[in-house]
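pls design
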């Protein structure tokens, strides 16, 4: 029977993994559905609630039945853009939809004519399937050698003497019955001569072989679809046979498995991120984008770095712009240290000091004791003690006699001394016998501490 078929090899190669007699190398599927947008594009991966045929994942991937899968004949969705005309979900040929390419079995009666007058006149039905009338037994027909034969009840053209139980010229066999599976068919030819004569419509079931008695039988073997490549998902389609689909979950053109076949791109170290594959641009994102085992080694951003000579975690205010992902050793991304020669000088300093420090890089201080008391780098000198003492207030005991307040710089209202300066300080609280009393202690000389 002659059928109107179309070759569509590209769709076959992109067909999704079909449940069959062969297993995957690693159990992966070509697309791992997620709920995010693909990096660098706007094609959906998550097909939940999406209509069939919505593009997803790039390439020939479509939303079909709520999943993102490669468009293929037999997936239940008629992809007209790929040349499909029908989808009937079975592997039968001639029933209106051809399983090899999802096109109609016929369009006119001529598409169905197999040239055999013995099996009835073929017609194309309204369902685009080829239908034949009942075989016409006893009618004349032409044999391959040009001689006249007779139509058998099985719809074949046989020699005039076929079926009499005697093997005559032009016959392979003659067993006198219409059983075509017993080694001799009703046209007096062998049921099979070679294994290919026994092949059925299912390419994934047991391998059929032709026996010495010219009958067909199933062997114990099934097709081995393992191509030995770790980067492909292997499966078997009943109509097509073995399929080897390159695993590429993020659609970046690279498989996570290592392939021996140089024609297949492999080595994707993260198959859920399409910005990660061998040869990708290295970014400053703490990810090994180019799959070379190193992270951010070539990523470049304009980063402000400061030299941290004193090791306090804060860099010098003398800033350096660098095209790096992270500041190199000896530098930090913080440039707020007002003196990078002294570890004690840093923005987080909380202590007070009674000696100042020299300016950064100075070999000698122009003023004895140092000119700078800004230890916390806030731009001001914060004095450690701002209190002043007034003899009119005296010392005041706290509630219940506990505590003692009122002390301070004894400078008669002239203000507190400057940072690092020495002056008299009046303390309140004198030890008398076995306890402190809240009275004026003798004046003492104290240095004003600052930060």
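designed seq:
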């Amino acid at each position: 029977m002659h059928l109107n078929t179309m070759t569509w090899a590209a769709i076959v190669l992109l067909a999704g993994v079909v449940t069959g007699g062969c297993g995957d190398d690693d159990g992966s599927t070509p697309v791992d559905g997620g709920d995010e947008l693909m990096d660098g594009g706007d094609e959906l991966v998550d097909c939940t609630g999406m209509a069939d045929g919505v593009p997803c994942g790039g390439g020939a991937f479509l939303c079909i039945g709520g999943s993102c899968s490669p468009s293929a004949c037999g997936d239940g969705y008629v992809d007209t853009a790929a040349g499909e005309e029908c989808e009937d979900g079975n592997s039968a040929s001639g029933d209106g939809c051809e399983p090899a390419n999802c096109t109609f079995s016929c369009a006119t009666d001529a598409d169905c004519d197999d040239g055999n007058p013995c099996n009835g006149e073929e017609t194309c039905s309204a369902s685009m399937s080829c239908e034949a009338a009942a075989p016409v037994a006893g009618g004349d027909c032409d044999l391959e050698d040009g001689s006249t034969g007779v139509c058998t009840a099985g719809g074949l053209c046989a020699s005039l003497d076929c079926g009499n139980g005697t093997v005559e010229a032009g016959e392979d066999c003659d067993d006198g019955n219409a059983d075509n599976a017993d080694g001799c068919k009703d046209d007096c030819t062998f049921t099979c001569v070679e294994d290919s004569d026994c092949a059925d419509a299912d390419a994934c079931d047991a391998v059929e072989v032709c026996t010495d008695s010219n009958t067909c039988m199933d062997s114990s073997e099934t097709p081995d679809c393992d191509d030995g490549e770790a980067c492909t998902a292997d499966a078997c389609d009943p109509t097509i046979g073995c399929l080897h689909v390159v695993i590429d979950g993020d659609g970046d053109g690279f498989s996570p498995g290592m392939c021996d076949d140089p024609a297949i791109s492999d080595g994707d170290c993260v198959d859920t991120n399409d910005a990660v594959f061998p040869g990708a641009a290295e970014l400053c994102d703490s990810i090994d984008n180019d799959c070379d085992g190193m992270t951010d080694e070539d990523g470049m951003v304009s980063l402000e770095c400061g030299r941290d000579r004193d090791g306090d975690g804060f860099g010098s205010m003398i800033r350096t712009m660098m095209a790096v992902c992270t500041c190199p050793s000896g530098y930090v991304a913080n440039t707020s240290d007002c003196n990078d020669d002294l570890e004690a000088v840093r923005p987080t300093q909380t202590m007070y000091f009674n000696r100042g420090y020299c300016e950064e890089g100075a070999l000698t201080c122009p003023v004895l004791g140092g000119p700078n008391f800004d230890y916390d780098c806030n731009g001001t000198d914060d004095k450690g003690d701002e209190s002043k003492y007034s003899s009119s207030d005296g010392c005041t005991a706290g509630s219940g006699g506990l505590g003692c307040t009122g002390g301070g710089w004894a400078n008669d209202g002239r203000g507190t001394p400057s940072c690092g300066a020495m002056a008299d300080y009046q303390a309140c609280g004198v030890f008398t016998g076995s306890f402190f009393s809240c009275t004026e202690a003798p004046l003492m000389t104290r240095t004003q501490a600052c930060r």
